[in-house]
C-alpha cells in the first residue's frame, strides 16, 4: 500500500514554519467545554506503533496535542478527537477546522460514550451544508490493509447497539470519520487498562490502522 499526503495539506505542511520533522505526526485534539479530551492516553501511541510495525508507515512514534485554533493544526495530517462529555468550539476553532479539512486534513472522532450529542452540533457549525451519513460496509475505509466486511468491530458494550461509522463528505472526499457505539480508542489502550481480550484489541488496532491508512492514501 502506498501512503502519501493529499496535495493541499502537503503544501501547507511544507510551508508551515513549525514543521520540524520529516515523519508525519498524528495529533489529539484538545477542546473546551469540559469534556475529557485527554481520555485514552495510551491509545494513539499503541496505534502508531501498530501502523509502523504492520504497514511500515514511518509515523512519528510520539503523537502531538493540538488546539483547533492553533496554526500548528496544519502540521498534522491526521487528527483524533475523543471523550465522554461536552465539547464547545469557538468561532475561530470552527473556521480553522473547516480550513484544515477542506485543505486536505482528516479528522477521526471516536465516541468514548456520551460524546455524540455534543459533537454532532459542533461539526454542523463547521460544515453547515453537510450532515453525517452512515458509510456503507463497502466503503474503502473498511477495506484497506485489513478487511471488515461487516463494518466497525464492537469493542465495548455501551448501550449494546450495533457500532456505526458516519462520515462528512466534502466534494466527494471523506474528511471526517465518526465512530459510534464502538469505542476503538479503548481497544487501542494498553492491555491492562480495560482488560480486553487479545483478539478484541487486535481488531481495534487493525480497524484503526485502516482509518490512518485511508487518511494517508486513496
Q: Can you give a write-up of this model?
A:
- Helix content is 33%, strand content 17%.
- It is an alpha/beta fold and 218 residues long.
- It has a single domain, classed as Rossmann fold (3-Layer(aba) Sandwich).
- A seven-stranded mixed beta sheet has the order 2-1-3-4-7-6-5.
- Helix 2 crosses helix 7 (198-216) and helix 3 (91-102) packs across helix 4 (116-126).
- Residues 1-5 and 10-21 have low confidence and may be disordered.
Q: Hey, roughly how much beta strand do the residues contain?
A: 15-25%
CA radius of gyration: 16 Å
Shape: globular
Q: What is the CATH topology descriptor?
A: Rossmann fold
Cα distance, first to last residue? 10 Å
CATH architecture: 3-Layer(aba) Sandwich
By CATH reckoning, the class would read Alpha Beta
Number of domains: 1
Number of DSSP helical runs: 7
What profile does the largest beta sheet have? 7 strands, mixed
Low-confidence stretches: 1-5, 10-21
The overall pLDDT, averaged over residues, is 89
Let me know the CATH homologous superfamily.
Domain of unknown function DUF4159
Give the ordered list of helices and strands.
HEHEEHEHEEEHHH
Q: Report the strand count.
A: 7
Range of helix content: 25-40%
Described by its quaternary structure, the protein is: single chain
Q: Structural class, please?
A: alpha/beta
Give, in spatial order, the strands making up the sheet with the most strands.
2-1-3-4-7-6-5
